[in-house]
């Protein structure tokens, strides 16, 4: 579990930097800066909890597994976001975005979290 936590934290950071870098590309920013926060590592590391869940769900359809992962990721994002927001240290703020809830989750990111859950399922598979 410990090594999966590290692996998930690192993958999460990389995915976030790629994602924010893509936003730079779309906004025609020539530096293509991707950003993250040190606070995100333990949040992304919690994706290691998907490993035992994926074993329990392995006979379910891809759509079902993806939806369950998406809901779990939204739950962790919301809970951690509200916790950090109350302490004035949340590294993200979706307040100005459409389909946001309390500025900490964006419902339009549902397809991203669906695919991210399935991605983590693949990287957490036992060799």
Question: In a nutshell, what does this entry contain?
Answer:
With about 130 residues, the chain is mostly helical. The protein has helices at about 1-25, 40-45, 50-55, 60-85, 110-125; strands at about 100, 105.
What would you note in describing this structure?
- There is one protein chain.
- The chain has 127 residues and is mainly α.
- The relative contact order is 0.15.
- The longest helix has 25 residues, at 2-26.
- Helix 4 (62-86) packs across helix 5 (110-123).
- The mean pLDDT is 93.
- It has a two-stranded antiparallel sheet with strand order 1-2.
- The protein contains 5 helices and 2 strands.
Give the topology, please.
Elements: H1 2-26, H2 40-45, H3 50-57, H4 62-86, E1 100-101, E2 105-106, H5 110-123
Antiparallel strand pairs: 1-2
Helix pairs in contact: 4-5
Keywords:
single chain; about 130 residues; mainly alpha; two-stranded antiparallel sheet; globular
What is the percentage of strand-forming residues? under 5%
Low-confidence stretches: none
Output mean pLDDT: 93
Largest sheet: 2 strands, antiparallel
Q: Which value, in Å, is the CA radius of gyration?
A: 15 Å
Shape: globular
- Secondary-structure element order, N to C: HHHHEEH
Read across the widest sheet, the strand sequence of neighbours is 1-2
């Amino acid at each position: 579990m410990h090594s999966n936590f590290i692996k998930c934290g690192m993958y999460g950071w990389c995915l976030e930097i790629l994602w924010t870098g893509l936003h730079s590309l779309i906004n025609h920013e020539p530096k293509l800066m991707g950003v993250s926060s040190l606070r995100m590592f333990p949040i992304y590391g919690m994706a290691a909890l998907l490993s035992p869940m994926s074993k329990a769900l392995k006979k379910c359809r891809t759509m079902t597994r993806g939806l369950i992962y998406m809901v779990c990721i939204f739950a962790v994002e919301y809970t951690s976001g509200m916790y950090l927001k109350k302490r004035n240290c949340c590294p993200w703020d979706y307040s100005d975005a459409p389909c946001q809830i309390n500025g900490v989750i964006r419902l339009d990111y549902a397809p991203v979290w669906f695919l991210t859950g399935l991605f983590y399922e693949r990287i957490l598979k036992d060799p």
